[in-house]
Amino acid sequence: MKKCLILLLLITIKAVGLAQEKPIRLGVAGLTHGHVGWILGRENQTDMVMVGIAEPNKILANKLSKEFGFPMTMVFDSMEEMIAKTKPEAVAAFGNIKDHLKVVQECAPKGIHVMVEKPLATTFDDAVKIANLAKTYKVHVLTNYETSWYETNVKALDELKNGTIGELRKVIIRDGHKGPKNIGVSQEFLEWLTDPVLNGGGAITDFGCYGANLMTWIMNGTKPLSVTAVTQQLQADNNPNVDDDATIILTYPNQMAILEPSWNWPIGRKDMELYGTKGAIYADNPTQLRIRISKGYSQFTEETFLLPQRKKPFNDPFSVFTAVIKEELKLPPFNVYSLENNMVVIEILQAAIESAKSGKTIHLTK
């Protein structure tokens, strides 16, 4: 009898373990985003399994099917059909930014969690609607940024909190590349990326969101007092309907941030500089960080750190998404993925667009 009870207990423990290891069923909404390869090429991970794709453009779907090896039988014309046929627990949005609201409207009432590619929305009104849906139906809505995977950004904030460079005074964040057409993005991606409605703007939204996201994280959710922005169109032939270069200035009670999103950088970049009362931190790229400490007027010491990738689950956005859904990970308030952070991001971007159009500084309400 005792042996039977032990055997039954072992079987129960094993069954519970297998249940916990069961992969999250993921649906993909859209294939036009250039970042979609991040999920289509994620075959070697077992925490999440792709069960369906919603994409009406069958030429595009067939092309990606051949490239990544997924069967066309899992491609559906609409999200409604994909959800009904495949019963996903989560959906990753890889279409235009304007459609993020539609994705959440379709998924949230069914209890389906959502991860969107940055930014969260094209307007603050849409962001509020998304947040209300997430709250009403108790689902997670995360926003993915490549810079969320950078160990250098994490170390930079840790060093700042530890007082290494003293009190923070200024942050400069630069993001971008040569421009969508110049780097050869797909036609399907280019069509909406350079559309002021579907993308919400040009470089100001495409890359301005990175700086707004990191700054909101650094400031632990504190909104800037004011937003001032200037935009230019330096490649009118390539980007006739949107800006391709922007400078955004954010002011806080004791700090200032300068965001420089652009489709005119000669070399692609995603870097950040933190300036304090005692020194500076330079997060040059995903793996290299430098710390300079002042030693007089212009002298300084410099230490360079070559860092590894972030540890699991933070090395991969879909691992983070899975861990949050399974309640293995609780993101802190105003974490870079969080809905709270990305609500502030959209408020900043909307103010920046308004400032650039009006030529005036926009003051945000608390």
UniProtKB/TrEMBL annotation:
Q: Where does the record locate the signal sequence feature?
A: 1-19
Record keywords: Signal included? yes
Tell me which residues make up the GFO/IDH/MocA-like oxidoreductase domain.
Answer: 160-281
Organism domain of life: Bacteria
Keyword Signal belongs to the record: yes
**InterPro entries named in the record:** Gfo/Idh/MocA-like_OxRdtase_N, Gfo/Idh/MocA_Oxidoreductases, GFO_IDH_MocA-like_dom, NAD(P)-bd_dom_sf
Keywords from the UniProt entry: Signal
Name of a matching Pfam family: GFO_IDH_MocA_C3
Q: Where is the Gfo/Idh/MocA-like oxidoreductase N-terminal domain positioned along the sequence?
A: 27-144
Q: What is this protein called?
A: Predicted dehydrogenase
